[in-house]
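Summary of Year 1 activities. Much of the first year was spent building the evaluation harness for sequence design. The harness presents a backbone, in tokenized form, and records the residue chosen at every position. We chose the following record to illustrate the format because it has been used consistently in internal testing since the harness was completed.
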């Protein structure tokens, strides 16, 4: 239930200040690796939001509880790719997905930050929430141990499609980890719908950033 007391955490300043000619690059350090993220001002999905920092930090600190090594991980709404890169460093088979217009920057960040590592080669794919799921990701072939999502809930029209996408991929045995900055009543309404469909626990809260990190699993009869 949601009444379990979550851990109260602070998002650590894990990025390295740089004197840089580019204002669009952020440098982070997770799991002992420096990660350079190129942001893009054209798209919402191409900026690092606080939920991505919160989930990256949590995955790094809780490797025993959530061991990603050799696990199949799908990130929906991967944005700049920070969380997918961290999951890849932690040893997962990662599929990072987002809208077509975000994929170029996403692919660039992921390949650049994982190319010289001895990790499973991550995959970048198009995924429009609620569209063509059974054609592009047939359940007979695709099963994921973890679904990762950060700051996917904000003021947009695709919330029902997002929920349908989470439901599609969340099968028995799958763990959904969702970190989000809670700003609007619609964010809480989405959480309520999620609680009606899944077993949901609040793992951690980052009060300074208004971020909650939630874990959801399918209800087994």
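For this record, the design step produced the sequence shown next.
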């Amino acid at each position: 239930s949601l009444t379990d007391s979550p851990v109260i955490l602070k998002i650590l300043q894990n990025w390295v200040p740089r004197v840089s000619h580019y204002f669009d690059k952020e440098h982070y350090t997770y799991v002992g690796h420096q990660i350079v993220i190129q942001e893009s001002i054209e798209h919402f999905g191409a900026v690092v939001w606080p939920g991505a920092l919160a989930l990256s930090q949590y995955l790094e600190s809780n490797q025993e509880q959530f061991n990603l090594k050799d696990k199949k991980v799908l990130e929906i709404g991967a944005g700049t790719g920070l969380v997918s890169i961290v999951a890849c460093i932690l040893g997962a088979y990662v599929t990072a997905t987002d809208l077509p217009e975000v994929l170029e920057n996403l692919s660039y960040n992921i390949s650049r930050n994982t190319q010289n590592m001895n990790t499973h080669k991550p995959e970048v794919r198009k995924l429009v929430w609620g569209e063509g799921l059974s054609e592009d990701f047939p359940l007979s072939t695709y099963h994921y141990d973890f679904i990762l999502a950060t700051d996917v809930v904000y003021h947009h029209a695709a919330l029902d499609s997002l929920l349908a996408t989470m439901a599609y991929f969340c099968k028995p045995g799958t763990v959904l980890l969702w970190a989000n900055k809670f700003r609007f009543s619609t964010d809480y309404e989405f959480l309520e719908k999620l609680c009606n469909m899944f077993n949901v626990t609040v793992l951690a809260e980052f009060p300074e950033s208004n971020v909650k990190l939630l874990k959801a699993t399918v209800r087994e009869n």
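The radius of gyration is 16 Å. Quantitative recovery figures across the full test set are reported in Table 2.
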